[in-house]
Structures are given as structure tokens and as C-alpha cells.
Specification:
- This protein is α+β, with helices and mostly antiparallel strands and about 190 residues long.
- It has six helices and six strands; from the N terminus they run H-E-H-H-H-E-E-E-E-E-H-H.
- It is about 50% helix and about 20% strand.
- A four-stranded mixed sheet has the order 2-5-1-6. Strands 3-4 form a two-stranded antiparallel sheet.
- Strand 3 and strand 4 form a beta hairpin.
- The protein is elongated and about 85 Å long.
- It starts with a helix and ends with a helix.
Length: about 190
């Protein structure tokens, strides 16, 4: 092997090593942001009894009843822990509201309402997206809970009046879901970028 070929090979191996380190750090940063978003988000998840039109409409009536019954302490919470505590205290009232909505619609179904950790797929809401993974969720199961679901973000309140439209921030959203452009910092600095 000539000296020139050896240097080109060494340069290629060195660049590949640098690229792998940069991509590893980028992936780690992306996961850190995604984990932070999951830890600071509480979701509302309403599962319909079935996929019939009647059950899907009933699901929306129960959703509206749950959102109307949310105590102000959930909306006013300054931390996810405060929101979880407020939701735990209000579980009986939320269960009652869901079942009252079912009764008003002359349904014999019952609602199961609980606050637990559930896995969700990544979701694009149009103005922002949420990474997939385990979230704390207020889960409302109607009847057999075999139908399509409806969900939103309770904390920070994105599915109730007065929702904060800047969560996660645009920069965080781009970091988690945006397209990546691989560039070399030294080359960018040399080019004046």
C-alpha cells in the first residue's frame, strides 16, 4: 500500500469515527429531550366501547364531560406532580362525570377512570408532536374499551380552554422529530457558517 493510499484510508477511518461520535451524541440529546417531554406531560386517553358510530359519539360526550369536570387545580398546576396529585384527588368526581354522561345518553356502559402510566405511539398534533413512550395518563375506558380512542394533553393543558400552544417548544419539537443535517463543525467554522 502506498503512503498516499494509507493516509486516505486513515483519514477515512478518522472521519467515520468522528461521524459516529457526533451521531451518538445527537441521538443521546434527542432521547434526553424526548424523556423530558414524556416526564412533563400528562395525557387524557378515552377509549370507546366499540367502533360503532353510537359508541364513537358517546366517547366524545364522555370526553366533554371529563374536560368540564376537571378541577381548576389541574389547569393551575405548576408542575406535573401537582397536576397528578390534583387528578388523583378528583378521580371519583371524574368517574362520576363520565358515568353521568353515559346515563344522559341512555347507555348501560360504565366508565373505568384511572391514572396510570401507559405507552403511547409518537403523535403529531399538527402544531407540535409528542415522542412515543410511557406517559402518565388519565385513562377513561368505556364498556369493553375495544373501540378507537381519543387523546390529548392534560398537562400542560393543551386540550382544554386556555391551552398553552408552545409546548413542547419549537426547538424541542424539531430536535425530537425534525430532520437532521449532518455537518462538520470545523468545516462550518472555516466556511463562516
Amino acid at each position: 500500500m502506498t503512503q498516499r493510499k494509507r493516509r486516505v484510508l486513515e483519514l477515512g477511518v478518522g472521519m467515520a469515527l468522528i461521524l459516529s461520535v457526533v451521531l451518538t451524541f445527537a441521538a443521546a440529546r434527542r432521547e434526553q429531550v424526548a424523556a423530558r417531554v414524556r416526564a412533563h406531560t400528562i395525557r387524557l386517553h378515552v377509549l370507546a366501547n366499540s367502533d360503532t358510530v353510537e359508541d364513537q359519539l358517546l366517547k366524545l360526550q364522555v370526553r366533554d364531560a371529563i374536560l368540564a369536570a376537571l378541577p381548576d387545580s389541574v389547569r393551575a398546576a405548576e408542575t406535573p406532580d401537582q397536576a397528578v396529585a390534583a387528578l388523583r384527588r378528583s378521580l371519583p368526581a371524574l368517574r362520576y362525570a363520565a358515568n353521568q354522561a353515559l346515563r344522559r345518553a341512555h347507555s348501560i356502559q360504565n366508565a373505568a377512570v384511572r391514572l396510570e402510566t401507559f405507552d403511547f405511539a409518537a403523535r403529531d398534533y399538527g402544531t407540535f408532536a409528542l415522542p412515543g413512550g410511557a406517559y402518565t395518563a388519565l385513562r377513561v375506558e368505556l364498556g369493553a374499551a375495544q373501540g378507537h380512542n381519543w387523546f390529548c394533553v392534560l398537562y400542560p393543558s393543551l386540550c382544554v380552554a386556555g391551552a398553552a400552544a408552545d409546548y413542547p417548544t419549537e426547538a424541542e419539537n424539531q430536535l425530537v422529530f425534525g430532520r437532521y443535517e449532518v455537518r462538520f463543525a470545523l468545516l462550518d467554522a472555516w466556511r463562516g457558517r
